[in-house]
């Protein structure tokens, strides 16, 4: 690879990072200044420096990583099951009209029910152990992956399908070489939305009924009137969610090399 090309890529990466950091840095400086001047009450919204000190203390004590590890483990378990079920049912509903008609009513009925409404029901059925929390995550991640998979399967390019018929390709070849590849961008969109829903689901479950996890830590900090600890938990969720979404985007670029909408 040409040395100039490498330098240009490095320059572009650094430039993009700096542009992305401009607004957060300005907001942090403004936040700190307003806190120091007394315009923002520390009991409601601590300054960035106070939150940083709380972060350091939580890292030293190990509480932050312990609770994050528990929450991430729950999310990965529930998300994996929800993603597998969402993709399988999405493919079946997208391919077969009979299955779509059979499940259309129940999907239309269950999908609008918010995750918060399921929490007390699942606690009643399963108790407050891991099963209820993972089930909540499965439900939360299942719907966006299902809907996007159905959309992707049904959205296969008609021109490619016509060419496949002209070339007398088998149905299996058409599915593997045309329908599934064309559905992948939509499936990955569902996976990205699904991981966000999975995070929201686990935090909801942990705040309502848990004795561990980052959601429990946020709820417990609220009870003790520790807004700095609470915000460390909130920002940790955002950082972990961002990193997972970034990894899924990179995986999408590697898998779907032909998608012109992918970032170079």
UniProtKB/TrEMBL annotation:
Q: Which CDD domains match?
A: TM_PBP2 (cd06261)
Q: Does the keyword Membrane apply?
A: yes
Q: Which Gene3D superfamilies match?
A: MetI-like
State where the protein is found: Cell membrane
Q: Which UniProt keywords apply?
A: Cell membrane, Membrane, Transmembrane, Transmembrane helix, Transport
Listed under GO cellular component are: plasma membrane
Bilayer topology: Multi-pass membrane protein
* Domain ABC transmembrane type-1, chain residue ranges per copy: 68-248
Question: Which Gene Ontology terms describe the biological processes this protein takes part in?
Answer: alkanesulfonate transmembrane transport
Q: What is its main location?
A: membrane
Q: Where are the transmembrane segments?
A: 12-34, 78-96, 108-128, 134-153, 174-195, 229-248
Q: Which Pfam families match?
A: BPD_transp_1
* Family the entry assigns: Belongs to the binding-protein-dependent transport system permease family.
Can you say what this protein is called?
Answer: ABC-type nitrate/sulfonate/bicarbonate transport system, permease component
């Amino acid at each position: 690879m040409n040395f100039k090309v490498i330098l240009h890529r490095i320059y572009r990466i650094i430039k993009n990072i700096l542009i992305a950091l401009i607004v957060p840095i300005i907001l942090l400086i403004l936040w700190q200044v307003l806190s120091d001047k007394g315009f923002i009450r520390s009991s409601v919204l601590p300054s960035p420096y106070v939150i940083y000190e709380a972060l350091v203390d939580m890292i030293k004590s190990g509480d932050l990583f312990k609770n994050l590890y528990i929450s991430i483990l729950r999310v990965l378990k529930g998300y994996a099951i929800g993603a597998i079920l969402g993709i399988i049912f999405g493919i079946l509903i997208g391919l077969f009209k009979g299955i779509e008609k059979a499940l259309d009513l129940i999907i239309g009925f269950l999908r609008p029910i918010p995750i918060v409404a399921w929490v007390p029901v699942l606690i009643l059925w399963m108790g407050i152990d891991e099963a209820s929390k993972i089930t909540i995550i499965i439900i939360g991640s299942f719907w966006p992956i299902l809907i996007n998979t159905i959309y992707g399967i049904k959205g296969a390019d008609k021109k490619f399908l016509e060419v496949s018929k002209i070339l007398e390709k088998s149905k299996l070849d058409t599915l593997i070489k045309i329908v599934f590849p064309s559905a992948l961008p939509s499936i990955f969109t569902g996976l990205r939305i699904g991981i966000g829903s999975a995070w929201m689901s686990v935090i909801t479950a942990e705040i309502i009924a848990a004795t561990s996890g980052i959601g429990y830590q946020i709820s417990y900090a609220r009870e003790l009137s520790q807004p700095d600890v609470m915000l460390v938990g909130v920002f940790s969720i955002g950082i972990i969610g961002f990193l997972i979404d970034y990894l899924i985007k990179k995986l999408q670029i590697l898998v779907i090399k032909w998608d012109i909408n992918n970032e170079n």
